[in-house]
Structure prediction request, 362 residues.
Amino acid sequence: MSGEGAREAALRGLVDAARAEAAPELDWAGIEQRLLREAQRSAPPAARSLYTYGWGALAVAAAAALWLVGTRTLPSALPAASPNYESSGPVRASADAAEVGTRYQANTGEVTVAHAGRAEWTLAVGSSALLAGKGEVIRVQLERGSVLSQVVPNPKPETFIVEAARARIAVHGTVFRVALEGGRVLVDVREGTVGVGPLGKPSTFMLEAPAHGDFAADGLSGTIDSRAVPVRVSQPHVAGPQRSTPGRGASPLSPSSSAAPAVSAPPPAEPSISEIEAGIARIVEATSDCFAQHTQSANGIQITVHTALSLKVLGSGSVADLDFQPPLSPAAEQCAAARISQVHFAASEQGARVTRMLELKK
Prediction:
């Protein structure tokens, strides 16, 4: 056998031996991972999305913010802005749900703020005030202009306070006006009595209606001009010494034997504040009884009505011009009118007009 034939015989032997052996199992998962790595190394760099750059910028900004927080001291809380109530016309607002710190501004019309069953105050056009308290004591801070307040009588002292500049005007139950003009505090009392003094101190001045006061901004000094009509006292005629009449045996009257002419004191200009408050208390009680008697409720539901009672006390002491706003039911008003007609005040020269806010419950 030649050399070439021997090589061919050996090659066929190897092929036969290889065919006789079992084929080895391949690691296809590993091969796939190696192919992917090779493809990533050889592929050109792909264009990056704008979203990628956007997220990167946000990350940088967040890191900067964290750095600022770590290097600077920020305030723990920012002060909350006080809510404002601005009017574009005459409006009426309820203070029951208002927050302390609410500022009321009467831009082009009056603003009336009502505290149900307790008080209401009206800002004149161009005025501004802050609701400074609404708990046991209602406090109103007048910032500019004027405010007219009407307070329901309360046995507790000083349930309603107006603060103007550095002065304090406190009342029990009354109708009064406070104004800021030229750095002065002007107070007009229409009903009741008010006390005026510096903030945080007892009242220095007492004004009983009708009266006008002009005070310094700190409430420490001022003048009171009472507007009460002066009592007119007529001078009695005093007879001179009488001469004896001849033939009658009469002797001149001695000073001890002369009878002083009777002088009746004229009535006051108007009923006193204590007289008015006592009469109003009886009127409020009568009205409350009539409302409860002539108002029907079912299923234990409580009915509450707020109304303003206005009346005139005549010079004779009787009551006239009775009015409820808003009105009560016809039966309740008729009952109240009959009961109120039995209330009499002290006689006076000019009488008085009275307005009270009532809270009636059934």
In short: The mean pLDDT is 75. The chain has five helices and 19 strands.
